[in-house]
Amino acid sequence: MPERTPETDVIDFRAAEHLLAARDPRGAVKLLDSVIAAHPESTAARLLRARAFFAAAQLRPAELEFELVLEREPDNAFAHFALARTFERSGRTDRAARHFRLAAALDPNPEYLRAARFPAQD
Fold first, then answer.
1. What is the total count of domains within the chain?
2. What is the per-residue pLDDT across 99-112, written as a single tens digit (0 to 9) for each?
3. Which of 2, 21, 75, 100 could cross-link with 84 by S-S, CB 3.0 to 4.6 Å?
């Protein structure tokens, strides 16, 4: 197997972005595994891998990656929003609500604000 270089890692990262956009999240995860092995500190690679896990319906690995990103970047509104969607998809709406609110508090993105709404009061 050829030796990995920083250029190889960048190429694999970009290829993983394209695979995810082309709806091949498992292919993206496979590429990102080697990038993260070489650069475990890369929050961008972990966030992309979390998104790929989510798209592949691998919710527990997605949750773990989003949580790791948030340990490193607690003010990452997108990571809070994506973690909330992960919790929501796995039926843990109470945990989802907290992260939807955090995302909306960090970034007034209309999608985050809509997701953070409390249930209507009768």
1. 2
2. 999 999 999 999 99
3. 100
